[in-house]
Amino acid sequence: MNQIVSVITPAYKAEPTIITTVRSVLAQTWPDWEMLIIADDGADYEKLLADVGLRDPRFKFLDSGKIGGGASNARNVALEQLQTGYAAILDADDRLKPQKLERAVAALEHHGIVTTALDVMDEGFNHLRDVGAGPDRTLTPSQYKWISVSMDSMLVWDTSKADGRYDLTMSNMTDLAFLLQLYRTVPASFHLGTPLHDYIKRAGSMSNGAKTAAGMIASKTTLLDRLGSGYYPLASADGAEGIEAFLHVSLQAEALYGAALAAKPGLLFEDHLEPMLAASDLSPF
After folding, report:
1. Which residue, 101, 126, 148, 166, has most beta carbons within 10 Å?
2. What is the pLDDT of residue 112?
3. Model confidence pLDDT, tens digit, residues 39-52
4. How confident is the model at residue 1 (pLDDT cuts 50, 70, 90)?
C-alpha cells in the first residue's frame, strides 16, 4: 500500500511561523511524506523557504485561489488533489514531534483514523499543558471528545477508508466537523496518548473575546443540531450520544468561562472545562 503521508498545511500570513513548522516535518523519523503548503495570501512560500535553505522535492506548493479564504477552503484545495494513502493536518504555526508520522503510520496498519495527544504551547513554545495524554487506546466517536477535550487538528487518516471536506459555513469547530465526516465510514479511531503534536495556542484564543466566544457557541450549537438530525451518519454502533453529551457540557463551560477568566486571568479553557466533564454523569466511560 502507498504509505506516503500528505501533510496538509494552509498558510495565511504565515511568514513568522512556517519555517519552524516545516523544519518539524523535515525532522520526522518517517521519511515517506509530502508536504502540501497551500498559500491563502498570495505569498511565495517556496521562495521564502528556499531563502533559508529549506528545499526538498517532497514540498508541494499550492494556491487556495483566494486571499484570506480561510483554512477550511485551503485544506479542501489540497484534499481535492490527494494521491497518497495517508493524510495529516498541520497548521502553519504548529509542529510535529519527530516520531509523529512514524507512530501514526504504524497504527494505521490496523485503524482508519489516528489521533494523538497534544503538547499545548504558547507562541514562544512554552509548555502550557497536555491534552489527551494517557494510554494508547481505541476510541469510539462517543468516547473521543472526553479524552481529546479541545482541538482536533492532530488527525492522520487512511484516505482509502475515510474521506471528508472542511465545512466553509462554520467559523469554529471545523476540525471536529471534519472528523465526524471521517467517522461515517470508520467506526472508531486509535488515540496515541503520547503528546506528538505541538499545538500553539494564540493569545487571541486565550482571551475569550466576545467574537471568539460567540463563534464557539454558534458552532457547537450547530454540531449539536446536526448530530440530532442525523446529519453525520456515524458508522459506530454507539452512535453520537457521547459527542452530544460532551457538547452540552462544553456549552455550559462556554457560558461560565468569561467570569472564570476574569476571576483567574490566564485560565485555559481546558482547565476550566475538565472539572465540569469530571463532575458530569454523562461520561461514556
Report:
1. 101
2. 98
3. 999 999 999 999 99
4. low
**What is the model's pLDDT at position 13?**
97
Distance in angstroms (rounded) separating the CA atoms of residues 66 and 36 = 16
pLDDT value at residue 209: 54
Residue 113 near residue 154, CB atoms below 8 Å: no
Query: What is the model's pTM?
Result: 0.95
Residues 6+ apart with CB under 8 A from 62: 36, 37, 38, 39, 77, 78, 81
- Please provide the DSSP assignment of the chain as one string: ----EEEEEEESS-TTTHHHHHHHHHT-S---EEEEEEESSS--HHHHHHHTT---TTEEEEE-SSSS--HHHHHHHHHTT--SSEEEE--TT-EE-TTHHHHHHHHHTT-SEEEEEEEEE-TT--EEEEES-S--EEE-HHHHHHHS-S-----EEETTT------TT-SS-HHHHHHHHHTTT-S-EEEEEEEEEEEE--GGGGTT-HHHHHHHHHHHHHHHHHHHHTSS--SSTTTTHHHHHHHHHHHHHHHHHHHHHHHSTT--HHHHHHHHHHH-S----
Interatomic CA distance for residues 48 and 43, integer angstroms: 9
Measured CA to CA in angstroms, residue 249 lies from 22, 85, 145, 221 at distances of: 36, 36, 11, 12
Short-list 76, 74, 80, 88, CA closest to 30: 88
